[in-house]
Amino acid sequence: MDQLLMDISETTNRTLKCTIGKRVEVQVEQLQREKSDLTKDNEKQRETLKSLQKENAELKTEMNGAQLTDNDPAIADLSDPTRPLSLGEKFSDLYDNEWTDAMEEMTDIISDETKVIKLLLEIVCDAYKFCLYRADRFMDKINRTLSGFSEELSSSETMPKVINQTNKDYRKRLADFAKEAKRDANIKVGTKTEAYMKRCVFVCWLMTVQDPKVCISMKPPEIFDEDLYKPYTKKGKRLDYVVWPVLHLHKGGPILGKGVAQGKP
Fold first, then answer.
1. Which compartments does it reside in (predicted)?
2. Calpha distance 211→108 (Å, rounded)
3. Each residue of 83-105: pLDDT tens digit?
4. Measured distance CA(18)–CA(208) in Å, rounded
5. Between the chain's N and C termini, which has fewer beta carbons within 10 Å?
6. Apex CA 56: angle with CA 53 and CA 60, to 5°?
7. How far is the CA of 203 from the CAs of 25, 31, 89, in angstroms?
8. Dihedral of the CA atoms 202, 203, 208, 212 (nearest 10)?
9. Would 53 be classed as within a structural domain?
């Protein structure tokens, strides 16, 4: 009897140990799986955090760059052909190239060089005023058009229509100005002078659709200010007449390009 009780007790103990052992093994395996899952989750979270930190750093860099380029034209996006410094270069090239060609052509028609200079100055100033007035109306029209597209704005069909309309409007403005300038000049305009007119409108159009607008000075001082003007053929304390206007980043803003003027004693 005692032996039987001992056998039963031993069997029961083995059974309990086996059962408990299996339960422990199951729990250990479960804990290991949970630990593995937590480790994987932690790795994913670390990767996500790294990715977010990288994106945040990139966004900060872009924002800082955008602020710098907005506030300082000297460090603007060099890939942008309409950045202020690029427009300053275009305006300077206009004087060096098309103005020079038109000057040579016009002096064959008008013997008085001073009159030709003043006529060419009037053309660029009129082109700027022409574009200034029409650019405001043009941009209002474009903004109204774009605001009506909402989600369609990025569609492949919508944007080409806007771009085509932009090009058509620009070509129309160019043709309108050429007609007005020829009529006002009251003389036969040669091909080089007409090319000068068109280039004036092109550059001035790019200047006037900026925000803020790149502008030119149309009211020169009486004193020859060498910070504003380079001498044409004569230096002097006083300014005789302007040959080429000063270019400003915006109205009352820093100079993008010096003008050219004739000095006198």
1. Cytoplasm; Mitochondrion matrix; Mitochondrion outer membrane
2. 40
3. 888 899 999 999 999 999 999 99
4. 89
5. N
6. 140
7. 82, 73, 10
8. 150
9. no
Q: What are phi and psi of 210, to 5 degrees?
A: -75, 165
The answer to the question of residue 38 being in a domain is: no
The domain total for the chain is: 1
Q: Are 242 and 220 spatial neighbours (Cβ–Cβ below 8 Å)?
A: yes
Domain around 128 = 84-211
Q: Give the three-class secondary structure for 91.
A: helix
- Give pTM, 2 decimals: 0.61
Strand partners, 229: 259
DSSP 173-229: HHHHHHHHHHHHHTS---HHHHHHHHHHHHHHHHHHTSSSPPEE--S--SB--TTTE
Is position 14 within any domain?
no
Residue with tokens 């020079």: 100
Summarize pLDDT for 224-248 with one digit per residue, the tens.
999 999 999 999 999 999 999 999 9
Among 121, 146, 125, smallest CA distance to 208 is for 125
Q: Which of these, 142, 132, 131, 126, lies nearest to 218 by C-alpha position?
A: 126
The pair of structure tokens assigned to 189 is 């305009």
